[in-house]
Amino acid sequence: MKLKTIKTILSHPLNQNKKISALLTFFTRGVVIRLHRHPIVYPFVENTSLVVEKGMSSAELQVYTGLYDLYEMFFLMHYLRPEDTFVDVGANVGVYTVLAAGVAGSQAIAFEPIPSTYSKLSRNVAYNGLQDRAELLNMGVGDKEEVLVFSNSLDAVNHVISSGEDFHGDTTEVAVNSLDRLLAQKHVNFLKIDVEGFEANVINGAPEVLARPELRVIIMETNGLSDQYEFGQNYLHDKLLSLGFAPYSYDPFKRKLEKLATTNPQNTIYLKDIEFVKSRIQMGRKISFRKQLI
């Protein structure tokens, strides 16, 4: 796992010209995180912070890289406005939620099913003073109301245990419901879904939300994990295309969008009403990051 993490850090776009420095950060901060008895607060973007402790792999990657999902995270900060509502399905410890509510100033609704991870999400929101802008729900999201079994000890890769999965680790039962029910009275402008392969079930439970004209952006994990469930990645991609969304890549330094022929290997930005989106990101304020404005 450590070798994989090192490869991830060294291949990150922000570390291409500073690989030695990135390695030093990984080893020094990694040791501190693992040896320190208490959570550590690290500066994040602008006036936000992340509270990190041993075992929080997604938060650690932010510490080692600056912004792990560089393109998607900058797109979020360039696009969102204070009057918008950002919905974070599979919030984990709240990295995207902190950026949406703490940097962009938007309202955020964050779903995290695992109780231990939810407590860390709540801590990050509270430390940044975002309780008035972030609504947190300790539950899962799927295509209907039910109770599902989730893994409980895999940190950022906890997931719904599928019927044919041979899993022997710790599990927990979690209440699940659909976005159409959970967001019936909400305006949703930006949807992020990262549920370790269960994305198609989330989409299938949200036809009304997805049809709303104000929802123009979906960021979704597209690394093929959905193929282990009933609906695979090809189904998911075709479903979004049929709803009027198209896949794009984003260059935050040029604020340029480029339409893709297929999905990205990790996360994909799906957009509709593209001219509106382009105008939005061009007019978005510059973000202070690593002593420069982007």
UniProtKB/TrEMBL annotation:
Pfam families hit by this protein: Methyltransf_21
GO biological process: methylation
Keywords, alphabetical: Methyltransferase, Transferase
Annotated Gene3D superfamilies: Vaccinia Virus protein VP39 (3.40.50.150)
Residues annotated as domain Methyltransferase FkbM: 88-228
PANTHER family reported in the protein's UniProt record: METHYLTRANSFERASE, FKBM FAMILY PROTEIN (PTHR34203), SLL1173 PROTEIN (PTHR34203:SF15)
Name of this chain's protein: Methyltransferase FkbM family
